[in-house]
Amino acid sequence: MLSRWLQYYDRSRNFACLKVNNPSMSTKVLPAKRLYVENSIPAFSREEPFENLLMDLQTKGWSVQDDFFSTDFTQALVDEAESIQNAYMLQAGIGRKQDHQIELDARRDYIQWIDPDKPIRTDFLKMMADLRVALNRRLFLGLFDYEAHFARYEEGAFYEKHIDAFKGQSNRILSTVLYLNEDWQDGDGGELIIYDEHDPSIEVGRFFPKKGRLAVFLSECFYHEVVVAKRTRHSIAGWFRVNNTTGSTLDPDQ
Length: 254
Description:
- By secondary structure, this protein is an alpha+beta fold.
- The chain is built from three helices and eleven strands, in the order αβαββαββββββββ.
- The protein has helices at about 50-60, 70-85, 120-140, and strands at about 60-65, 90, 110-115, 145-155, 160, 170-180, 190-195, 205, 215-220, 225, 235-240.
- Strands 1-9-6-11-4-3-2 form a seven-stranded antiparallel beta sheet, with helices on one face. Strands 5-10-7-8 form a four-stranded antiparallel beta sheet, with no helix packed on it.
- A hairpin with a 7-residue loop joins β7 (about 190-195) and β8.
């Protein structure tokens, strides 16, 4: 489906690494955490996940990799996700821009879009930008930018079977989901189910939202869903996009 191996290096041709810090938004008293300093924690500790990711995208169009980022970098993202107060999150909906609608029968998660306004968020977006460049160089995908949000599924929340993009009607090319949950167990629910590209009634994979696990799949090709969570579930959902700007429409608009 795609055709080349990925070897991911930063702009200096060194294997990519980042560093980070976590100021909490929460007013609750939390255990003391190490502050995250921008560009202080390596994001990547080994090359294997990148090689596996590219091979999977080539052969089947989707990939799920454990421990994609370093333990410390992932932990900094976990701390950030857990620190966000519900009051600062929005009820997720269906569709973008003027087509956005709240559909509680379809999904019940809460989201907060990620802007580069804190060190850990800045470094996450920088890292995904570098990954975008690497994918373009190796796979010639023409990816233009990346958008992402934190997602929180409280107990009882779900997201019914859906597809992230419709052929010829969207600029989303690759969907990503990074899971940020400690000690997820059998019975906690919240699994991601990916369905067959050619027969959406057939499951091809069911995955716990365990800490550090990254799912990537072609946005136009794979239906997927999140089953009912039995405990609070955190993740970062994102999309690599192409530029669909025309003479009358700016898209992406950021």
